[in-house]
Amino acid sequence: MKIAFVSTECVPYAKTGGLADVAGALPKALEKMGCEVKIFLPKYSSIDESTHGLRYNWAVGEMPIRVNGVVRSVHLEQSKLPGSNVEVNFIDCPHYFHRGRIYTNDIDEDERFILFSKGVIETLQRFGWAPDVIQCNDWQTGLIPLYIKDNYNWDRLFDNTATLFTIHNIGYQGRFSKSTLLAAEISGDLYYPDGPVEFEDSVSFMKTGIAFSDLINTVSNKYSHEILTEEYGAGLHTILRARKEDVYGILNGVDYTEWHPGVDRLLPFSYSKKDLSGKTKNKKFLLEHFNMPFDENVPLIGMISRLVQQKGFDIFAGALEDLLNLNVQFLILGSGEDRYESLFRIVSQRFPQKVGAYIGFNNELSHLIEAGADMFLMPSRYEPCGLNQIYSLKYGTVPIVRKTGGLADTVKDWDEEKHHGFDHGNGFSFYDYTSYALYSSVERAVNVFKHKDIWKKIQLNGMNLDFSWEKSAQKYMELYKMAKEKRE
Ligand code: ADP
Ligand code: GLC
């Protein structure tokens, strides 16, 4: 099976969130199963050519690509995904991608990803390589399914190429004014109220991806059902319901060569489920780093997140005063909206013994917090999959989550399971999106933490679970086959 995997983030090159982790891991798992996978990524200026061994592809040369009536010269740089044979293709167009940020609010944000989408297709043409499936990820790649079926439909190369549109987050839709139709060379016939491209008087890249792809999937089973509802569909539930038969959910996996306390190269102390003493040492190390007191009996709650509305920081802020009255400490790593960045700066200054905050992006620290914290809090309003709670399970860091999307699919509440006669709970969860519900579940966790034997049982229940990519990659293989059959 030949797969083109198109993404705007990929570890270790460019990352703002979980999409990068997925793009850096799923292709490797697919390759192990015998697929030929080529990743496509924009060549952002932040990607250092010598660090990552990028090479200019002379055979492809300079490709003239037209966006918004202007022809840009685009070329291809290539490398191999570390630890694999997966080819990574970087679409280089300095005008659009040398901006210091992966995503911008610039006026031509639409043009940046129009160029990327065309660049991917035109590179495939120059390779003369017809993928069985092009897997498109999130709105930035939403025009590709349309382009394959319409604008580039003249090229017989793609006659049997299917498209799979993977929704990692329906909250970000790529909506632009009607003038984008011209910039992207989308046929005006496709733009009419409630049509496949139009959404609330705008051009929606996400909707276009949903409308024209052969199959659609999201990154957990629960989220694949949630997005069909008005509450979670962010306005696109109607079109998703119309394509209900084609919507699947596949839970993301974890790259345990990166995220496992036994092999994690970024940890000062490794540990395993047989010997958790290294975890305590990491906690001490972490707290010292933040000039906070260490006490084995005071639970340390970690949070690593984009500081945005989706992640539940409004209900967290509402619960903060009560939470600080508990005998706990917090460590927060994140960046995003000003209001939350300043909230955590202020709280950490006012309660330096109880709250530590690092505002910014720091990969090393994210590993250290996963390892050193006793609990991990993710009170998300919605969560398509969520990776940190899955990492937390492996690190013996008990997750406390809101029961939604992938959080609901991976975290089993200890008390609730016990109520049903099971002792395989691996965390704590709450359903109501309120500060009170959040507070209550943290309070429950803090109480159980006092019972060391029970706590260890909960930790081990999580550490024993296996979310490696193989299982999920197998499911993707099935989807690819189905997508291909639809195209034949
Ligand atoms: P999302 O993709 O919605 O942001 P996920 O839980 O799927 O949420 O993935 C987030 C990923 O980004 C994780 O790998 C997490 O460790 C990482 N991450 C988020 N914020 C930061 C940060 N400030 N510094 C380092 N890593 C971060
Ligand atoms: C998105 C989602 C997150 C998911 C990630 C990777 O950014 O918000 O829940 O884990 O994509 O699929």
CATH class of the largest domain: Alpha Beta
What is the averaged pLDDT score?
Answer: 98
Using the coordinates shown, work out and report the CATH topology of the largest domain.
Answer: Rossmann fold
- Backbone shape: globular
Could you please describe the fold and organization of this structure?
- The chain has 488 residues and is of the alpha/beta class.
- The protein has two domains: 270 residues, Glycogen Phosphorylase B (Rossmann fold); 190 residues, Rossmann fold.
- Helices cover 38% and strands 19% of the residues.
- The chain is built from 18 helices and 19 strands.
- The strands form three sheets. Strands 1, 2, 3, 4, 5, 6, 7, 8, 12 and 13 form a ten-stranded mixed β-sheet that branches. Strands 16-15-14-17-18-19 form a six-stranded parallel β-sheet, with helices on both faces.
- Helix 11 links the parallel strand 15 and strand 16.
- Helix 3 packs across helix 4, helix 4 crosses helix 6 and helix 9 crosses helix 12.
- The protein is globular.
- The mean pLDDT is 98.
- Bound molecules: adenosine-5'-diphosphate and alpha-D-glucopyranose.
- The site of alpha-D-glucopyranose has 14 residues, from helix 1.
Give the key terms:
single chain, 488 residues, alpha/beta, Rossmann fold, 2 domains, ten-stranded mixed β-sheet, six-stranded parallel β-sheet, 38% helix, 19% strand, binds adenosine-5'-diphosphate, binds alpha-D-glucopyranose
